[in-house]
Amino acid sequence: MKKEVFIFVMMLIVKCSYAQDAVDLGLSVKWGNMNIGASDPFEPGEIFAWGEVEPKDSKDNCTWEKYFDTKQISKRYSSYSVSFNIFHDRGGYSSIKGHRSYDVAKKRLGGNWRMPTLEEFKEVLNSCTIQMLFNKEKDIYYFKVIGPNSNSIIIPLTRTYGYSQERHRGCVLWSTTMDSYGSDMDAYVAEFDRGYSSIMSIQKLWRCYGAAIRPVYDYLNDSDNSGDVAAKKWKEALKYVKAYNESSENPLTKLSYLEKADSILEEIEKMPNLKSERLDKVRALRKQIKSAMEEYEDV
After folding, report:
1. What is the DSSP secondary-structure string of 158-215?
2. Which of the listed residues 179, 202, 220 is the one where a domain comes to its end?
3. Chosen domain end from 182, 199, 220
4. Which of 95, 153, 165, 210 is a plausible cystine mate for 56, CB 3.0–4.6 Å?
5. Same domain for 167 and 242?
6. Going edge to edge, which strands form the sheet with 216-217?
7. Is residue 13 in a domain?
8. Is the pLDDT of residue 11 over 60?
């Protein structure tokens, strides 16, 4: 029984270790500290076509033929003409902002998390200092975005699917905004490129192509801060659960880790306005902790 509890709790830790930190750069939204699908700010994360919520595994899957919104394709020589079912400039939608069916940040993270808009990327471009740096320990280049308040986030090098070859020298991040004034085949992206003097620029990309996603937290539209507080307490509880799983110390010490984790989770459970999915997750982990604590009844 004890081994089963251990494995289940570790699975929860792995699943929740990717929780985003909302970094205040002094802008209109807070920015996630890593890409969707990453477990570390230096990891590239997963690659998505615009408006799709399942990741792409190769450039071969980033074509109009395999794109979810494609209605009809006309091809003449090397030129494409594509019509769409949902997102188009003839009365269709032109943004996926906050839409759970198409905004993967909203779907994955919930709450006030979502993908950034074109205007929010422009705010970064116009208000932040952007540097390209080298991490000797990890042996990789990366970009550092420093906000007006001196807080910063890391932008890693990522793959971009859909070009004649995969690109690795920079990072391309989707916005929620489609190019409804030009070709509705395109959506806007922020491109960080170590080959350009300006480092960051606003570009357009075919929506069927694959790029990374950096979430934002829309704190100005948050009715209360219970979500932020719950997230911080959740991470604190997971630290104690992880300490319990990895500890080879005496039983009293291991039991104390469980008791501390359970106490924190109890605080979260009592919070007002807690979203049901978070509450279910808290209760599931508390149940596993209670089960593990039974192993120490004679201690």
Report:
1. --BBSSSS-B-SEEEEEEEEE-TTS-TTEEEEEEEETTSTTSEEEEEEETTSBBB---
2. 220
3. 220
4. 210
5. no
6. 22-23, 30-32, 216-217, 113-114
7. no
8. no
DSSP H or E run through 145: strand 140-146
Cα 57–58–60 angle (5° rounding)? 135
Q: Residue holding tokens 């919930």?
A: 110
Half-sphere exposure of 11 (CA within 13 A, CB side): 10
Strand partners, 160: 167
Asked if residue 182 and residue 139 are part of one domain, the reply reads yes
What residue numbers bound the domain in which 286 lies? 224-296
- Token pair of 85 as six digits: 């079912």
For 107, 165, 178, 244, the CA distances from 43, given in Å and listed in that order, are 21, 21, 27, 27
pLDDT band, very low/low/confident/very high, at 1 (cuts 50, 70, 90)? very low
Pairing type for strands 170-178 and 186-193 reads antiparallel
Q: Which of 144, 173, 195, 197 is nearest to 47 (CA)?
A: 173
Count of domains for the chain: 2
As a whole number, mean pLDDT of residues 7-11 equals 42
Distance of CA 233 to the CA centre of its chain: 19
Query: Chain centroid to CA 16: how far?
Result: 12
| Mean pLDDT (whole number) for 160-185 | 78
**Residue 297, CA distances (Å) to 251, 253, 255, 291 in order:** 10, 14, 10, 11
